[in-house]
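Protocol step 4 of 6: record predicted structures for both targets in the notebook before any analysis. Target 1:
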Amino acid sequence: MQAKKLSLHHIIKAPKTAVEKVPVLLLLHGYGSNEEDLFSFAAELPEELFIVSVRAPRDLQPYGYSWYDIHYTATEKISNDEHAIESRDAVATFIDEVVDNYPVDASNVTLLGFSQGTILSYSVAFTYPEKVKNVIALSGYLNHNIFDFNTDKNYSSLDFYCSHGSVDQVIPVEAAREITPFMEEHNLKHVYEEFPVGHGVAPQNFYSFKAWLEKRI
């Protein structure tokens, strides 16, 4: 099966056995990367998944893509939240397009993000909980400025696997450790794990989230 031309550029891996209404996994890469990066996981993930690896919409120079711009000052890193919200809504629209154009189950959508892709995945899930079932959130944190957590919405179907490197020099682990208190405060299903690595995905981390996902698709 060939990838269709939708609002966001993407590549796909369809299940070996063609059936209707299969679980779908959307991969959202990190800042400066592209759709090929997380797609390297695809061959090792459950075969029944329909995998869609998405390219972020913003071009970076000299290469790569981002979900939103990041500006650095002498003392801090500043995210462009306006761009992030635009990308959040673009992903929500793209989920609908995937459901309409591929033989996938609209009630079994998983987002897997890394770094900036994780930050965006949280924002999509909290703003549009009706569109998402599972989130695998690798090496990211909660940016409360880019999602609308509304107690009138139903978050009971959401389930999160969250992980971080304990020696991450890009996103300090302290930022990720704020995730569990937030999840517990709002009674959200989640797992949080740390691994003795920097800003990346250790083999143990991969096998852990794979096992978590296999029980939920």
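Target 2:
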Amino acid sequence: MKKKPIILGIESSCDETAVAIIEENDKGQPSILSNIVSSQVDVHKEFGGVVPELAARSHIEKIDLIAKRAIAESKIKLTDISAVAATAGPGLIVCLTVGLSFGKAIALSLKKPFIAVNHLEGHALSPKINNKIKFPYLLLPISGGHTQFLEVNGVNNYKRLGTTIDDALGEAFDKTAKLLGIEFPGGPKIEEWAKKGDKNFFKLPKPIFDPTTKSTHDIPIDRDDAISKELVTNDEYDRLSEKSIEIYEVADILRKHGGKTGEELK
């Protein structure tokens, strides 16, 4: 009986250290045996954002422990691994180097193949792990510094339909949260505050969106100028919930663009 492949995957592209063990099940689908993630929120909180050098140092300190926990939880032996995979980019170079070096060392010591994984391709294919999705499908990755519409036609077969023409969604959230004095990480806090406010209190201009235009799927979502000029510097108001709503509404822009893009692909 042919042995099913077992992959040790490593992620260290930004401010989380993660190691997972994945095995192909009897149906030929990937099965997650373990997935250990270590967050660095406390490391970067006082700076209001991710400091690359501190992130890399934290990866170095934790990656060995995280890998051991992942292997122990998966109930396999290290020698059972068929190959080692690690994020090769995009990401913070000083952070990527940690995971790549660690993964290459394991692969070399075990004399197993090493697989360098594109960060965005990992996002593009990950929905198929827990869902029965057939190619092609429309994907909206909003992780970190990337907000895009992608047509996923197969492994290593993608078509970018649109991307942000200024900031990515996560960047816009974190930058405006910092301007408003909301502690890092700003995105989840923005969402929490937005649920408590009056959406009609402020009326700020929204990015241009014309559902009748078919020339582009690019997404203008950067609202930093509006936030800083109309909200942050205005001492008359101290309504954090209402300010958060204005920032959070960029998600509605993505929803409208996604609907438009999906209709055009039918």
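Step 5 preliminary note on target 2. The longest strand covers residues 30-39. Residues 32 and 79 are 18 Å apart (CA to CA).
Proceed to step 6 after PI sign-off.
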